[in-house]
Design a protein that fits this description.
Strand content: 25-35%
Structural class: alpha+beta
Largest sheet: 9 strands, mixed
Protein name: Hydantoinase/oxoprolinase family protein
Number of strands: 35
Helix content: 25-40%
Domain Hydantoinase A/oxoprolinase: 199-472
Distance between the termini: 45 Å
InterPro entries: ACX-like_C, ATPase_NBD, Hydant_A_N, Hydantoinase_A, Oxoprolinase-like
Domain Acetophenone carboxylase-like C-terminal: 474-641
Domain Hydantoinase/oxoprolinase N-terminal: 10-176
């Protein structure tokens, strides 16, 4: 029984399963999968924790949540009023004029979260230097409060022009709006940075999902009152419940962020500093570029076409998962996804009422998944149901896999070759319940030299929650020249970042690092550059620009646009653990499976029976409770010292 003082559990709420990884010093790590409960995700979390530690108590429960993400995607948000400067009523509708596809004549922009009739404007104007051009009067504040009251909002977003330069008007307005008794998001507190549309969009997203996230976290704390609960943020770090409840926009990429943190640690443990994280779950596939063992972080992301500028790992997501439904379009072509069978009813082979063919059904029909074996969550597969579901398609099960792999290959190229990064220098870290079934085929198509499958790939995102440090990033737009003395601002941001982590309960071993968004004069977008050592800021931009674009412009003036200080605490785990409980090895006979258009006889190898130094030659299926790894004919996998399954392809 793990000691109740030391036990910690990382919990990842996915579209199909809720995964739990239990860690306690002196005990083997334990993984548990239970079906996600879409109507009340907290119920699935509670059930997973109870199964992982039925008679004990937890000290800490970091968890990844899709609550904020789903609220935006499904538009199940609070009725939100948006207050902005007079003349900027349509800032959310006008947005940016760039087109996502230049020659697509049918492209349509997503509708703003807040309709025009819920926008209230105030007569005020702050200048870019922080000096008021039109003062905000008490009478105007009273008029604005009355106008917002008549809208009967459930939340309020306030984003005034140039409030990042001086927040006096926003502060006074929000103080007055406080009498309405609903949550208020102030843009200058949430995102004190320039670009009014992106700041307004981020502010509105936060306000619209704050009541939703607050209800979810309150429910979770009621169900699990004992452990300290933290929430994974999009940036690859954790935050306290109070922060996540009031700034939920930071959690929009909560679930996949944990996975890429763990993928970076796994890649390093296998000897690869650079890699691509490849997470194929039940409803989607997430990919992310990893450099020097860490996922890249950006401050320019979007969800459902809506931009937000909080720090986020550079994840690209496509609607291709184990539950993705295969269908035929009007032209007779086979398509897979983005619609998914989800957790309820799930793929046809789950035997829970699903009738439509999915990727998991294709694997079941091809023999990749053993119907006699109990999968995560206590599931047993119905191969006959899978065959019936697939029978209505014009293509075989192998065709379904070919189509979904084409979608995933495009996603992998998006974060590698399309960014000028050669995949021949990147390992593919495969995880998620379905990732290892597709990994070697995708790695060969991209030209990756190796595939790394961690010891517990089906719960790697849950493990990532134990590997992720507490993290907060303080920022401020400065729009200065590279030679200006910014030491006072750096110190202010450092104090702010440290205070926020301390407020969240991180009292010791806080590490601070500096980042600056920089550009050459005349450019309209910046590069995020780590500020380290004694190297001048201009030289840092020259180096970063050369690495990103292949050239530098030393004769151009360098501008420092935004300063950032990142504060990090210590994670629960410093490195991926070993000695996983894979169950008892069970000898199984070889079986015939389909790979492409071929039928081959594959070895069935229990991962529980593998040890460092062991090798497996394909065709083979390496089975474990949370996933299955597929090796094609002639592919050789070996178990390294960290218990990773490594397939060298070159």
């Amino acid at each position: 029984m793990p000691d109740e003082v030391e036990a910690c559990a990382g919990v990842d709420v996915g579209g199909t399963f809720t995964d739990v990884v239990l860690h306690a010093p002196g005990h083997r790590p334990k993984a548990v999968k239970v079906p996600t409960t879409p109507s009340d995700p907290a119920e699935g979390v509670q059930r997973g924790v109870a199964e992982s530690l039925p008679d004990g108590a937890l000290r800490l429960l970091p968890h990844g949540s899709t609550t904020a993400t789903n609220a935006v995607l499904e538009r199940k948000i609070a009725r939100t009023a948006f207050v902005t400067t007079a003349g900027f009523t349509d800032v959310l509708q006008i947005a940016r004029q760039n087109r996502p596809a230049l020659y697509d004549l049918s492209v349509t922009k997503p509708e703003p979260l807040i309709p025009r009739e819920l926008v209230v404007t105030v007569e005020e104007r702050m200048g870019p230097d922080g000096e008021p051009i039109i003062a905000l009067t008490d009478d105007e504040i009273e008029r604005a409060v009355d106008a917002v009251r008549r809208l009967e909002p459930e939340a309020i977003a306030v984003s005034l022009l140039f409030s990042y330069a001086c927040d006096d008007h926003e502060r006074r307005l929000c103080t007055a709006l406080g009498e309405l008794g609903v949550p208020i998001t102030r843009s200058s507190a949430l995102l004190p940075e320039f670009r009014e549309f992106e700041r307004a969009s981020t502010c509105v997203l936060n306000a619209a999902i704050e009541p939703v996230m607050h209800r979810y976290l309150s429910n979770l704390e009621t169900r699990l009152p004992d452990p300290t609960i933290t929430v994974m943020t999009s940036s690859g770090g954790t935050a306290g419940v109070a922060f996540a409840a009031t700034a939920p926009v930071h959690t929009l990429l909560s679930g996949p962020a944990a996975g890429v943190v763990a993928a970076g640690a796994v890649a390093r443990s296998a000897g690869f500093d650079d890699a691509i994280a490849f997470d194929m779950g039940g409803t989607s596939t997430d990919v992310c570029l990893i450099r020097d063992g860490h996922p890249e972080v950006s401050t320019s992301s979007e969800i459902a076409g809506l931009p937000f500028r909080t720090p986020a790992v550079g994840i690209h997501t496509v609607g291709a998962g184990g539950g993705s439904i295969a269908w035929v379009d009007t032209g007779g072509a086979l398509r897979v996804g983005p619609r998914s069978a989800g957790a309820d009813p799930g793929p046809a082979c789950y035997g829970a009422g699903g009738q439509e063919p999915t990727v998991t059904d294709a694997h079941c029909a091809l023999g990749h998944l053993d119907p006699a074996r109990e999968l995560g969550g206590g599931l047993r597969l119905d191969a006959d149901a899978a065959d019936r579901a697939l029978s209505g398609l014009p293509e075989s099960a192998g065709g379904v896999l070919a189509v979904v792999r084409a979608t995933m290959a495009r996603a992998l190229r998006r974060v590698s070759t399309e960014r000028g990064v050669d995949p021949s220098g990147l390992a593919l870290v495969a995880y998620g319940g379905a990732g290892p079934l597709h990994a070697t085929a995708l790695a060969r198509e991209l030209g990756c030299p190796a595939v790394v499958v961690p010891p517990a790939p089906g719960v790697l995102s849950a493990l990532g929650l134990l590997l992720a440090p507490p993290r907060f990033e303080a920022s401020r737009t400065v729009l200065s020249s590279a030679g200006d003395d910014l030491s006072e601002l750096w110190d202010e941001l450092a104090d702010e970042a440290r205070r926020e982590l301390e407020k969240q309960g991180v009292a010791t071993n806080i590490e601070l690092s500096k980042v600056a968004d920089m550009r050459y004069a005349g450019q309209s977008h910046e590069l995020r550059v780590d500020v380290t050592g004694e190297t001048g800021t201009a030289e840092l931009l020259h180096t970063a620009h050369r690495e990103a674009y292949g050239y530098e412009m030393r004769d151009e003036p360098v501008e420092v646009v935004t300063l950032r200080v990142v504060a990090r605490g210590e994670p629960v785990l410093a490195a991926p653990p070993g000695n996983w409980d894979q169950g008892s090895p069970e000898t199984k006979p070889d079986r015939e499976i389909g790979i492409g258009d071929r039928t081959v006889r594959a070895h069935v190898v229990p991962r529980a029976g593998l040890h460092p130094g062991d090798e497996i030659t394909g065709p083979a299926l390496v089975e474990q409770p949370d996933t299955t790894t597929l090796l094609d004919d002639g592919e050789v996998a070996f178990v390294d010292d960290a218990e990773n399954l490594v397939v060298r392809l070159t």
